[in-house]
Amino acid sequence: MRDFIAFDIGGTLIKYSVLKENGSIIYKNEVPTEADLGGSAVIDKVKKIGDELLQSYPITGICISTAGQVDSKKGEILYASSLIPTYTGMQIKKELETYFQLQVEVENDVNCVGLAESWIGKGKDVKSLFCLTIGTGIGGSYIIDNKLHSGHSFSGGEIGYIPIEGSQFEELASTRTLVKNVAKQKGFPEDKLNGKDIFELALNGDEVCIREINQLVYYLSKGIATIAYMMNPEMIVIGGGITNQKEYLYPLIMKQLEKDLIPALLDKTKIEIAGNLNDAGMVGALRHFLLQESLQPFNRITTMIESNKHKLTKGEATIAKYVTMNLSDVPNHTISHMADKINVSESMITRFCKKLEIGSYNQLRMMAKEATIGTRLHDKTENSSLVEIKEDYINILNKIDTLNQSVDFAEIGSQLRLAKRIILYGSEEKEYVMNQLKYKMMELHIPVDVFSNRYQMDRSVHLLDQHCLVVGLSISGFNSNVLKMLEAARKCNATTIGITSQQDSPITERTDITFFIPSGNDVGKVSHSIREVSLFYLLDTFLKEIQPLKKTQVM
C-alpha cells in the first residue's frame, strides 16, 4: 500500500502527516505557520518538511489542504485573506511538483473536511452530505455521490457569508464571535480567552457563558436550517474545533432545530458531529489526490486524440470531438448507436479506434468507463488554442468576481447619491483606459474628470471637497502621485475608491473601498490586453449592480 504526505495549511498551524492509501495515519506532527512571513515562506516551510519526510518514507505523492479559495484543477490560490500575506495567486501545485518531482494536488481545507467525512467519516454511507465547519469563521462543502461540488467559480459551499438577520452567518455563530461576546461582557482581553474556557465556565454555571452559547446555537440552527431547506442533503455534518464540545452542544442544536425545521424535513435529515476532527484536512487532502489521480484514464484518451489528430479524416475528427465532449456517455452506446448519434458509419468508428491505437470500439468504451467511474463530471472542452484563450479569459473574469465578492455595492450606491463629481486619478500609461472608463461612468449622469500626470493632479486639488467621489487607479498599489491625491481627497472628507491588483499595498489603506483586478502572476500566458478587459469588466459589473440605485437617483 502506497504512502503519501499530506499537509493542512492554516493561518496558525501547518499540520502534516504520512498516510497510507486507505487514509490511515502512520505519522503526524504540526508546526507554527508563521503566516505573517507571507505565502512564499509558508511554501518554503512545506518544502523543508517534505524533504525530511522523503528521507524516511517511500512517498508516492503530496496532498495539500489549505486555507483560501483554491482552483483545484490548477492547484492555485485564487484568494486568501490578509491572514497569509501574498498567498493569493500562488501556484502551489506547479511550484511543489517542480521541487519534489512528484504529483501534487491542492484543495481548499473546508472542502477537504467534507471529502474526509464522505470517505471514511460519518457520511461514508450517504449519497449527499453537507459538511459545516465552525471555527474562527464558518465554511462548508457539499458532496454528492462522493463528488465535491465546488460551484462555477470554486466558491460553492461558502455558507459563512449568507445573510442572517442583517449579518453574515459567520459573524453570528463562529467561535471567534463567541469569544468576542463573552470577553466584552466579562471585561477580559480576547486573547486571554478561548472556546474551551467558555464551555468549562458554562458547565460550572456561569450565566454569561451559558447565555452566549445559547445565542450561538440559535444562529447556528438558522444556518443549518437554511442548508436543509435549500440543498436537502441526506446528512449535515458539523465539524471544526467547536465540535470538541459535542456533549454540551448537540442536544441544544437539536432542540433549536425543532423550532427552525418542519418535522418532515428534520426527521429525514441526519445531523451528525464530524468524526475525523483535527485530522480531517489531511485525510481529505489524500482523498482529493486519489480522485484526481483517477482522472488519468480521461487524460490518456484526450492525449491519444490530440497526438493523432493529424491522422484523422474530417469524419473521424467529428468522432474525436464527440468523444472528448461526451466521454461519460460513450460507455452507454453500442457502436451502432454511436454511429447513428454522430451520423457516421460503424466502419469509420472502427478506423478511428485503430488510428488511436486503442484497438476496438469496445476497448474505447472500457477506457471511457474507467475514466468516469468514481470521479466528478469533467468540463466538456475542445483541445484548441481558441478554447484555451477563452478559458483563460473566463478564469480571469471569475477571479475578478471572487476578489470583489465582499464589496458592499449598496454602500457605494449611497455615496453616489451624494456625489456631485467623480474624479479619476491614474498613471499616464493608463490614460487611454481611464478616458474609456470616464465615458462609461458618465452613464451615472455625474460630471467625471480624469487626471493622469503630476501637473494635472496638483492643479485638480481645488476640485476636491466632501461631495466628490475620488477613484485612484494603481495596478501596483504604490503609485506615489495617486496616493498623494487620495490622501488629499480624504482630508477633504471625499469618498475614495481604489483599484489595484495588490491586496497588501498602500492604496488599500488610503481608500474607503477597494476593487481588485488580477495581478501579473494571474495573467500568465494571456494577452496583456486582459488588464484593460479586467477594468472594463469590473466597471460594467459595478454599473449593473448599482443600476436600481442609479434609476432612483435620476428620478
From TrEMBL:
GO molecular function: carbohydrate derivative binding; DNA binding; DNA-binding transcription factor activity; kinase activity
InterPro entries from the UniProt entry: ATPase_NBD, Homeodomain-like_sf, HTH_RpiR, ROK, RpiR-like_SIS, SIS_dom, SIS_dom_sf, WH-like_DNA-bd_sf
Keyword flag Kinase: yes
Family annotation (Gene3D superfamilies): 3.30.420.40, Glucose-6-phosphate isomerase like protein, domain 1 (3.40.50.10490), Winged helix-like DNA-binding domain superfamily/Winged helix DNA-binding domain (1.10.10.10)
GO biological-process terms attached to the record: carbohydrate derivative metabolic process; D-xylose metabolic process
Record's keyword terms, sorted: Carbohydrate metabolism, DNA-binding, Kinase, Transcription, Transcription regulation, Transferase, Xylose metabolism
HTH rpiR-type domain ranges (all copies): 299-375
Keyword S-adenosyl-L-methionine assigned: no
A Pfam entry, by short name: SIS
SUPFAM superfamilies: Actin-like ATPase domain, Homeodomain-like, SIS domain
Every SIS domain range: 412-555
Family affiliation: Belongs to the ROK (NagC/XylR) family.
The protein's role, per its UniProt record: Transcriptional repressor of xylose-utilizing enzymes.
Name of the featured protein: NBD/HSP70 family sugar kinase/DNA-binding MurR/RpiR family transcriptional regulator
Source organism: Oceanobacillus polygoni
